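hiii, so i know i said id send this last week but things got crazy w the move. better late than never?? heres the sequnce for the chain we talked about at the cafe, plus the structure i predicted for it. fair warning i was half asleep when i ran it
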Amino acid sequence: MASSSTPFDDRDGVIWLDGKLVPWRQANIHVLTHALHYASCVFEGERVYGGKIFKLREHTERLIKSGRILGFEIPWSAEQIDKACYEVVQAQKIVDGYVRPVAWRGPEQMGVSAQETKIHMAVAVWEWPSYFSPEARLKGLRMMMSPWARPAPNTAPVHAKASGLYMICTIAKHAAEAAGYDDAFMLDYRGQIAEGTGCNVFLVIKGELHTPTPDCFLDGITRQVVMELARKRGLKVVERAIWPEEFEQADEVFITGTAAEVTPVSEIGKYKFKPGKVTKMLMDDFDVLVGRAPAKASAA
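okay and structure toks below
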């Protein structure tokens, strides 16, 4: 098993590349690949729980849709992509881990125009623990407000999970970590609450869940799952435009995502919160849904 410090280009195992399994270290692309220069690349992040990929078809369909938004058709069907994901999971003998399908324009043409490029695809799988430590998940994350904003829908393909959109996420998260925070939080181009660097956000206000309308960022699959879990619990879920000063009204705040799962937040900029009963309940419900025992510690 590779450790967390092992470079991702120097590991044992196999990767599914353009229709076949190849040795991990040989799954390479050329330096003049279009996607490297012009971000013509889409991807997904999926979790394996007990050998089963959570919400695989939903992720696969979003991958195909993301490619179409960027102007290309992935030359494999949803069924073939699903099969490829499981082929790698089984070949790697992964029980609990992370799946990364990725599709991109190749090196056949270099320049802004890339009509003649071939569309390539790969699927890699590796063991990966929780994005945040168990202690951080229960105590709550400290997040710094980022100066970077999510772009307007007419300035970027905001509804695609496209690699280029994550450039500012990396910059923002690095700045947050350098300042001693766990992550960064972004507003949108209007100054409204948007999301973290790779997660959606929920505010618990008077027992109701409030979450920003995803009109300029991804409507996360985990976000949708948590909203369904909340409604099953009889909680009212409100999707609306939310301004940052409304954090003052929130009793609890938590984030959701494939990597983050359901994680409470203790701080966003000048706003402070305590992980509470609603967050802990939804954390437990999510853990049960994916077949994992809920965390034993209770929320503060």
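btw The chain has a mean pLDDT of 94. thought thatd interest u
miss u guys!!
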